[in-house]
Amino acid sequence: MAEYGGEQPLLSSVHGGCGRVLNGEDCDTEPIDGVADLAKEFLVESKKLWYLAGPAIFTSFCQYGLMTIIQIFAGHLGTIQLAAVSVENSIIAGFPYGLMFGLSSALETYCGQAFGANQFEMLGIYMQKSWVILNAMAFAAVPLFIFATPVLKLLGQTASISREAGKFALWMIPQQFAYAMMLPSTKFLQAQSKVMAIAVIAAVAFCLHGFFSWLLIGKLGWGLPAAAVVLNWSWWFIALAQFLYVISGTCGEAWPGFSWTAFEGLWKFLKISVACAVMMCLELWYIMALTLFAGYLEDAEISVDALSICNTFFMQNLVLLHMIISYTCSVRVSNELGSRHPRKARFSVVVSGVTSLLIGILFTLILVLSRKQYPAIFSNSSEVQQLVEKLTPLLGISVVFTNVQYTLSGVAIGAGWQAPVAYMSTVCYFIFGVPLGVLMAFKFKMGVQGIWCGMVIGL
Q: Where is the chain membrane-spanning (predicted)?
């Protein structure tokens, strides 16, 4: 048991068996023979995929919809309010969230393989390790929120945006601790395919969030402080509801209760968590960097607003693809590897990739066809709406490109290969994507379109 909690969750140290999995051989799986057999197996794997992905996609839209609702109300308060919320969310809150999201992704490897190997009691121990690490990360991030205004000014944001975003950031400190509790419990439940419980909790939070946003911001006119209170409350509702579900006895042996064992081997667990964090949060840092550079352009408020609207739709689709590809692929791969079925793991990658490509194309067509309508949902400014319309084709290209990236990310997480992928992503995003985006935006006077072209190149 102690070996499985080490730096790498190697299957050879988990349990007995044929041992041939390390050579790529299955213990009990026959190869696919013929087109008919392929179609049958594709259908079977698709059912498994959608059993996981369906509720996960719904959960994703509900959770990311919390910020979308706040942005809609902030956009109708004014351009400076929308810019403040967008900058705080993408830069100040985005940095620690990216780290915490990545750190928690180690559970997809550990819990997924432990569940496949029937080491159920280890799932709860791993989740508690992750709670310790993420809460420490949340505490470490508090100064960033306290000094958000000078930090944003130092990064080159305008004084008005920095001031409003700084005020909003102070209100958003509790949200970080909600993330620290919610993310590990989410990974813990997903590894066991308990996705319906997560979806129900997210749906209730979304409905309550929409009502209180309308009441406090739209009806009573309490402005950005009310937006922060509602957003904090919604995330804490999700975190507490999932925690109560976990400890209620519904997870059986997977929740052994609180244990001091969670503090044993914490450093080894932290090392693979950091590798996960670097790999998973590079996407968020990439978007954060692009939003930051948009603040240097002429008409910074309009550029940031337009980019934030596109980022909202881009992130919604990224989450959709992440749920279908990275999450489902990592769960399927880790579960099958834990059960010593590498052929099934490989086949799930193929099914995930084909499915995600089709969904990416469909999502892009919807965006392009509605490019004259959807910007008005977020902003009353005609300049912002026109700029978003121009960015939509690039947004669609970005959506399609992500499918290959997230397929491979899911494989890496499920198999514990996070470090090599982190190196590759760093080069693609920050050696090619960001510098070329800045060059096109400022040197070739392409503005925010040049910044997004850099994003496409990086992808």
A: 49-74, 131-156, 195-217, 229-249, 269-294, 306-327, 347-370, 421-442
Residue 15 domain flag: no
Q: Is residue 215 part of a domain?
A: yes
For the chain, how many structural domains are there in total?
1
The Cα 415–Cα 421 span in angstroms is 12
Q: Which residues contact 296 (CB under 8 A, 6 or more apart)?
A: 156, 442
Residue 446 has a CB neighbour count (10 Å cut-off) of: 16
Whether 2 maps to a domain, the answer reads no
Cα(105)–Cα(107) distance, rounded to whole angstroms?
A: 5
Q: Is residue 416 part of a domain?
A: yes
Among 115-124, 180-189, 336-345, 428-437, name the one with the lowest average pLDDT.
Answer: 336-345
Q: 10 Å Cβ neighbour count for 316? A: 18
The widest CA-to-CA distance across the chain, in whole angstroms, is 66
In angstroms, how far is the first alpha carbon of the chain from the final one? 39
Residues spanned by the domain of 293: 34-458
Predicted local confidence at residue 131, as pLDDT:
95
Tokens 């090392």 locate to: 271
Which residues lie closer than 8 Å to 376 by C-beta, 6 or more apart?
A: 385
pLDDT in tens, 126-142: 999 999 999 999 999 99
pLDDT class of 318 with cuts at 50, 70, 90 = low
